[in-house]
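Moderator note: this is an archived Q&A kept for reference. The question asked for a predicted structure of one protein chain; the sequence and the answer are reproduced below.
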Amino acid sequence: MKKFVSVLTLAAMMSGANVAYGQVGGNLAQFPPVDLEIMIHETEAGTPELSTTEVKLITGEYYRLNVLSDGETDWRFEAPDLLANSHLRVLTVNDGIEVHLQSLVFRAFEFDEPGKVSFGFVPIRPGTYQFTVGRNPIAQGLAAGTSGVQEPEFRAEGSFVVE
């Protein structure tokens, strides 16, 4: 059995002899972050309109996403898949309250009034990740904190493309 394990180990090492492996080195959250912005504008019909619906990102780069709302509607911004596949750093509310998120995860945030939420992150896995903006669950008659697809008539969608 010991001989079989040795042969298997040698075969595994030889099969990777022509493969180059890369690793990002250093500080993944090197300051300053690349600033990105998504503005949520409330239309006269009361629906959300986004300033951009596609955000291109590069794995291993440090970003700060600034999401701004100019409406009175309680909007909810959800990006659970991007957030689950990123290293999160700091979440800031209206440039005054900071939550240091190292090792913590969140799925969404809500605006109770016009304002700004920013968060620093480093995407760690390539892919296309959807985000949605819709009304706060309570405004829809749902339990607080309910996640998922919002009412179609009060929803805007976009995606983060991580290469």
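Archived answer notes: Residues 32-139+154-162 form a domain with the Immunoglobulin-like fold (CATH 2.60.40.420).
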